[in-house]
Design a protein that fits this description.
By secondary structure, the protein is mainly alpha-helical. Helices cover about 55% and strands about 10% of the residues.
């Protein structure tokens, strides 16, 4: 079956991301690391990552760090959705972990 862009097989006990979604996510992660995403695009990327990360039961700390530009005091709150997100060194490390 399919659930919010992620496919799963209960019989096989596996979850996977379709190739086109995985490629888009990898491109967004690369753009995010290069500081090319607006806060609005960063937030959209994070919605998908949050969903996938929770299904994979990965370290929550990574996602918490990556939500910071959209949180209180982040670029989204300070400058609005059209502002460009320039990731910190820590955020770039977490983006790389997501791409791995």
């Amino acid at each position: 079956g399919t659930w919010v862009g992620v496919r799963f097989s209960g019989v096989l006990g596996i979850v996977w991301i379709p190739a086109e979604k995985a490629l888009r996510a990898l491109c967004e992660l690369a753009d995010a690391g290069a500081g090319l995403l607006t806060a609005e695009l960063w937030r959209r990327m994070m919605g998908f990552l949050e969903h996938v990360w929770s299904l994979l039961r990965r370290d929550r700390h990574v996602i918490d760090i990556l939500w910071q530009p959209c949180g209180r005091g982040g670029v989204l709150a300070r400058e609005g959705p059209a502002a460009r997100v320039v990731p910190t060194a820590e955020e770039r490390r977490m983006l790389a972990r997501c791409a791995y």
